[in-house]
Amino acid sequence: MSANWQAPLRDMRFVMEDWLDAASWWREVPEWADLDAQMAQQVLEEAARFVAERIAPLNASGDLEGCRFEQGEVRTPSGFREAYADYVAAGWPTLALGTASGGQGLPQLLDVALQEMLAGANHAWLMSPGLTHGATVCLEAHGCARTKREWLPKVASGEWLTTMCLTEPQAGSDLALLRARALPDADGESYRIDGSKLFITGGAHDLTENIVHLVLARLPDAPAGTKGLSLFVVPAWLDDGRQGRSHNGVHCEGIEKKMGLKASPTCTMRFDEARGWLVGEPHRGLACLFVMMNAARLQVAMQGVGHAHSAWQRAHAYARERVQMRAVSAPAHAGSAPGGAAPIAFHPAMRRILMELRAIVEGERAIGYWIAHWLDIASHHTDSQARAQAHRIASLLTPVAKAFFTANGFAAASSALQVFGGYGYIHEYGVEQTLRDSRVSMLYEGTNEIQAIDLLIRKVLADEGAALGMLLEHVLAEARCCAAGEGAVQAAGVRLLALAQDVERVTRAIVQRHAADPETAYRVADDYLALIGWLLLAFAWARASRLAWAPEREGDGFYAQKRETARFFFDYPLAAFGHRLALVEAGCAAPLPHLAEVDFVH
To answer: What class, spelled out in words, does domain 9-66+77-136 have in CATH?
Structure first.
């Protein structure tokens, strides 16, 4: 009774064609002048076919088989290597890569849709190629001549995979504590890297012949703290010319036994005088790496959307099949069992869960694609001021999406499991794997708490709300447009306007309180990020409602569904905005107790 994964192509098209009207802007970009909605649809359909046929079928089997660590080598589950070879041969790693680097040069918007599909279909498989785009951008921007000549082309094409080696046992989110060392080599060009790293996704595997590691380490003259970190490109194997290749002192010492993503190898790595080449300037490794991490964080956000969609899809299919008890409001034809029992999809408790999942998934998809569209504007707009503004808005939205979407992805999987009852706890129905696999997205690429601090401290307070003001201008413009309408559209606009005003007011309160109590912003950051997340969903559904109520769409079942989901969102899930607002206000008013002040009784 478990559902096969299917791509949400109709809703993806709605977001790109109606909600964003992306093709209208693409025509203004010389490289995309020939790209229209029909061509984008063809790309999405081909991606959906590939993911459904080659990637999704390996999800459950890969989870059961897991990765194996044998005599220092890592073996991925059956079928993973072949599927990855097909993925590279089809050109999917180069979808949004610039044509100058051998890519197809398509918008980030299309690549984000692909990432959502892959995450929803088989998150563990996605983990290995997930860093390719970010690593390519990083090496293009900051790699030395040898890096760009010998390793970048193979990384960009997907022929070789990459890792991001940051974490050490004593240094998780606090990178200032890193101890890995880099000493200049005798050749005057390279360095010798020594140290251990853990939690390294794809540190060793059998998917590609070589793995290119991006490693943070300290040079001998490095100052203390994060300002003393340098970034190095360290291939697992080196080309020795006529003699073939030689091992480069990169060793996998084991793989972790994890809660989820069992088909993705999470490795402990040891670098033993491994040769590496500096990326960027000495002691400025974090600045280089942030290029890679920012790209990765939007991908992680879309993992949350993929998980939520997969969970909703499974729960929706099951609820329509599972017949239990009498439903109060079930239509007469719904009963299919003795005593008038009906599919559980007609029971109010189940209907509410399914509607909440749909509202969250479709709202987040719109916002996630909106961020990708801002990134496209930031890199391709002909006006420098427009590019700068787009970059600031995308930078502001990225930590919100990463934290809010992944938290909702895990919550959605848990809610979907509830629809299955006891069957949800069984592996064959698939939703328990989604629950396990989704949890890590709240932890890596900066924990969700780190994202909240980044948003409020570095993005809102640091520029005195300038970037937030740019965002709110778009929200308020939509609110006014909707408020000028009628009925449900007008009501959505009035509600959105009030929400935006609440955000403006509480942000001013945080600024004032933080001046007197520097812990204030840190205390309220998590709830403030969620508050912005709910505002964004309200923005997404206000616009969706306006589009769906257009007279020419009145007889279309898809838009009728959009209208109903929008109405439900403003009636039910959006109540969470008020809850988060109250918590932010409480955090501004009252400090947290220190542990020493709390009486622990053992």
So the answer is: mainly alpha
